[in-house]
Amino acid sequence: MKLKSIVLFSILFSILAVSLIYVALTRLEEPLRRDTIPSGVYIIPWMRPNPSITELNMHRQLPYGPETFKIENVMTGALKLEIVFNVNISSSIRTVQSTIYLGHDQEYLYVGGRFVGMFTNPANKPGEGMGGNFLQILFDVDHDGILSTPETGNRASAVLYEERPAIIFYYDLVWISKPSYQDGQPYWEFTDNLEDMGIHPPTFAMTEACATYENSTGTLSVLFKRLLRAPSLRDLDALQMRAGERWVMGFLLEMGFEVQGSQEPFQDYVDGWPRKIYPYASADTMDSSWCPKLAIDLSNPPATYPGVPL
């Protein structure tokens, strides 16, 4: 009887020990990622929009969009990239003088753009779906020069009307392959469409956006924010920064016009910076070694942000 008790105790103790070790290992986090910042990298500064996107949307002309705001004032302290997009719209080229704004705080990456001479979507036709004018940013998150799942991206799309402000929509993007689509080559897909593949993302990294449109000059301004960490999206979205980390990532900017009602995929009018890879229909697009690099450093939070008291 005594031997049986000892054996039983040993078994229970072993089970408990294994369980404790398993719990400890599953809770053990990887070391903080702290990439070295090489020369030529775009360093994204600490900043917050002022007014915030929430405040801008509180003053919107419901249900269409916020009143006019000057994004250069809202994004004080952000990194600015001056870019000229040349969008092929079938029979002509639409040249759009653009300023892209990038900033971050401990929780969000802020992405904005001012597009002079964009005007309304040339693909929109009466009686058909209204496509938006969009800005999107795509990331090679692990900075290895190859797009491989999971990667991440975001798009803000504004449907423009000459007689009223913009209606804003926003989306998360993932790098994914589907054997029956695009000849099995990977491509950027909206997370909204993943349900058709049996994937049900519980939340989204992109949380808020706003836009305004000046019809007289054809100038669209958009601003959106995305979470720097959303653990529930880890399998789809590799941008999962922790406090104290410093990441260097490849990135690509795209601007264009959505084409609604087309029976063929990837028919939007798009240009990219520093170069165009849309419509992602080739294995060559997996090579992101040429992409410019940006750095987000969460190891040195400031006491205050430009124009925004904490």
Word description of this protein:
It is a single chain. This protein has 310 residues and is mostly beta strands. The chain folds into 2 domains: 1-30; 34-297, Immunoglobulin-like (Sandwich), CATH 2.60.40.1190. Helices cover 12% and strands 36% of the residues. The protein is built from 3 helices and 15 strands. The chain has helices spanning 2-27, 53-58, 71-74; strands at residues 42-43, 60-61, 65-66, 79-88, 93-104, 108-116, 133-140, 152-161, 164-176, 187-190, 206-214, 219-227, 246-257, 269-273, 293-297. Strands 1, 7, 8, 9, 10, 13, 14 and 15 form an 8-stranded mixed sheet that branches. Residues 20-27 and 61-66 have low confidence and may be disordered.
Number of domains: 2
Radius of gyration equals 23 Å
Mean pLDDT: 84
Describe the global form. Answer: globular
Structural class: mainly beta
Helicity range of the residues? 10-25%
Q: How many H/I helical runs?
A: 3
Outline the biggest β-sheet: 8 strands, mixed
Keywords:
eight-stranded mixed beta sheet; five-stranded antiparallel beta sheet; 15 strands; globular; Immunoglobulin-like; mainly beta; 310 residues
